[in-house]
Specification:
The protein is an all-alpha fold and 224 residues long. It has seven helices and no strands. It is globular, with a radius of gyration of 18 Å. The two termini are 16 Å apart.
Length: 224
Amino acid sequence: MKNKITKRQIISIIMNCLVIAFTVTGTVVMLSPRVSPEGAVLASRGWRNLRYFTVLSNEFCGIVSLLWIVRTVRGKTFPALLKLMAVSGVGLTFAIVAFFLAPMNPQLNLYQGGNLWFHLIVPVTAMIEFLILDTKRLPVKQTLIAAIPSLIYGLGYLINILINGRGEWPNTNDWYGFLTWGYPIGFLIFGFIFLMHWGIACLMQLFNKWGQLLMARLGFHQIG
């Protein structure tokens, strides 16, 4: 017999629906050359945008939200690790743009076109949803696993350059410019990003803990 959907789950379902809707909107805007033209800040033509971690992490987050809704409506539990992996991925994107790229490049609009959705709207919505999500806390080792997508992406990024070369702009394989100062600095940058991803995963766990306490005080008790 299916478990009755709680009020708290209904709130999460609504939030996950928003994540999905915003992800779809961002994707449509990203694929529209009139809104996100070739050469815009961190934007390429059409499906070439899938080379960016930003886009991949947002699409993954939207897919996870859809799967979460399906399993929740069917009365089944959803892997907490996948949820943490999704929200920490978009959280990493949000943090890098908000606290590093935007302050370092005040003359650039990093929230233009599809980037508005993928750099800001989807990540913030997903993080708020995770704050109130009724899910189990994971041990530190599993929070490390949640950061593996950025490690895999970094290795793929570097291997692609080693095989195909850096190339010249705008067709460079170093589209983030991480190897501008050479491979040693590039490896350090990716190492820092991985640690940052892990830190965000741990931080989201902490936020979820606070959210659990807040929801309990408001009368939205855990499922069990």
